[in-house]
Amino acid sequence: MKPANEAALDAFLGLIAEKDFAAVTLRDVAAAAGLGLADLYRLYPDKVALVGAFMARIDADVLAGTPSHDDPEETARDRLFDVMMRRYDALRPHRLALRAIRRAGTRDPLLALALGPALRRSMAVMLEAASLPSEGLSGALRQNGLLAIHYAVSRVYDRDETADLSKTMAALDSRLKMAERWSQFFEKYMKSSNSEESPPATNSPSA
Which among 40, 41, 54, 157 counts the fewest CB atoms within 10 Å? Predict the structure, then answer.
């Protein structure tokens, strides 16, 4: 027998795939999962919490496939490519539900805003899985950059019916290469700025 939280999440994903996000209520989810409404509310007080749990489940699936040690031959871009493709593979069984969530977020800006923290948290997890820091100012910039890449690639992923997700792979690879070039340019600019701001060295007086 499934734990109640897993049964509720599975019921939610099935219902929004069938009916669309806005048409599904918590009462519908509780009935489909065989739970009382109060029991469901204790687990997930709203549909935003259910979407957050869905993202966390996908994050866990990605992390489960992450090797314990990095390959020294792989670049940061290689690792991030592998991590994101594992994410898209993990999402494949839930494509209809994912489309329902995206449609709802497009129609309802407040819903999109409410889902933002969970999505950013997922991007932070993806960065950590690729051995890239996700904290601090630089981590926040990486999260925003990966989020922008994810949004762009997701549009390709939604229409990608190839068995190996080759179109998604091509789109992801292209955007990661572009992000890598911008990152290298930014690092060179920062190093140049720091060297120009450093005061000239002065000779110490003789003792």
Answer: 41
